[in-house]
Amino acid sequence: MEPISDFKVWYCTGTSTGIGLSIVKKLLLQQTNRVVAITRNPQKLEKEIPVEHLPNLLAIKTDITNEESVKQSISKTMETFGRIDVVVNNAGVGIIGAVEELSDQEFRKAFDVNFFSVLHVCRNVAPIMRKQKSGLIMNVASVLAWFTVGEYAAYNTTKYALNGLTSTLGQELAPFGIKVVLLSPSGFKTNFVNDNMESAKVRIEGYKTDDLAKWLDGIVNEARGDPDKFADAVIAVSKMDEVPKNLFLGTAAVNWMEGEFKKQIDELKLNHELTISTDFPNLPPL
Fold first, then answer.
1. Taking 70 as the threshold, does the pLDDT of residue 193 lie above it?
2. Which are the contacts of 205, defined by CB distance < 8 A and separation ≥ 6?
3. Whole-number mean pLDDT of the chain?
4. CATH homologous superfamily of domain 8-250?
5. Per-residue b/e over 26-60, b at no fewer than 16 CB within 10 Å?
6. Euclidean distance between CA atoms 135 and 79, whole angstroms
7. Are 134 and 85 in contact (CB under 8 A)?
8. Full 3-state SS string of the chain
9. Phi/psi at 201 (5° precision)
10. Is the pTM of this model over 0.85?
11. d(C-alpha 274, C-alpha 203), whole Å
């Protein structure tokens, strides 16, 4: 394929199944897109794509936890298309377990996929987008980047970290004309629990790790979120002149976050006097 400046070039991770696959399919329906799909199995992905859309797809086998592999995929993208307009960091893994139950190895695996893979991509597309003076990066987190669920410690922690990374990156890249968005979905009906979920090898009596596993199965079965509608939302964001810093996706996300924000505000007010008591005395008011 020759570099084509008239087309928008998308670089997407986590594209083999679920939301990522829906994003790839939706993008390819629009002839104005070229899609770079980062995946562990390009052949499997290509079988999911209608043959008439394959010319607009570049599927690259990549280990997103390895920065050198990510660099190679970005280099191949640039050799093929000459630019990167939109990045969607969608890959993720879930590991069930309480803090005390999870090993360092299990925690680090969650960070490698959910955080460091995103860092690898962002760090290596930033120079390209700065040179272009344009670009959009969308990082898929979760409502669990904003509040926690017990016995889901590794996932919660990585998504909070991704929230911080995305917010910081957005401030840093804004002067270069680059937009950065955090996407925070609630439950979507995908195979994430079956395909990308693991459990701590250690169980400690008293924790509710096994109960959480059953709850997550139920959440997926009853999920209101449609992966194709998620893809539509991603495409809609890419067309906005002013993008949100964070976008919650799903009715459950709205309901949960309204309750969570209210609890935080109530607690802030409850402890107001103690909070401000830590200042030096006789300072002018802020």
1. no
2. none
3. 93
4. NAD(P)-binding Rossmann-like Domain (3.40.50.720)
5. bbbeeeebbbbbbbeebeebeeebeeebeebbbbb
6. 18
7. yes
8. CCCCCCCEEEEEECCCCHHHHHHHHHHHHCCCEEEEEEECCHHHHHHCCCHHHHHHEEEEECCCCCHHHHHHHHHHHHHHHCCCCEEEECCCCEEEECCCCCCHHHHHHHHHHHHHHHHHHHHHHHHHHHHHCCEEEEEECCHHHCCCCCCEHHHHHHHHHHHHHHHHHHHHHHHHCEEEEEEEECCECCCHHHHCEEECCCCCCCCCHHHHHHHHHHHHHCCCECHHHHHHHHHHHHCCCCCCCEEEECHHHHHHHHHHHHHHHHHHHHCHHHHHCCCCCCCCCC
9. -70, -25
10. yes
11. 39
Sign of the four-CA dihedral 3, 7, 12, 16: negative
Q: Is the pLDDT of residue 191 over 80?
A: no
Is residue 94 left, alpha or beta, with left meaning phi > 0 and alpha meaning psi from -120 to 50? Answer: beta
163 φ, ψ (degrees, to nearest 5)? -55, -50
Listed by start position, the domains of the chain span: 8-250
Residue 196 has pLDDT above 90, yes or no: no
What is each CA distance from 10 to 37, 38, 69, 86, 248, in whole angstroms? Answer: 8, 11, 18, 5, 22
CA 203 from chain centre, in angstroms, equals 29
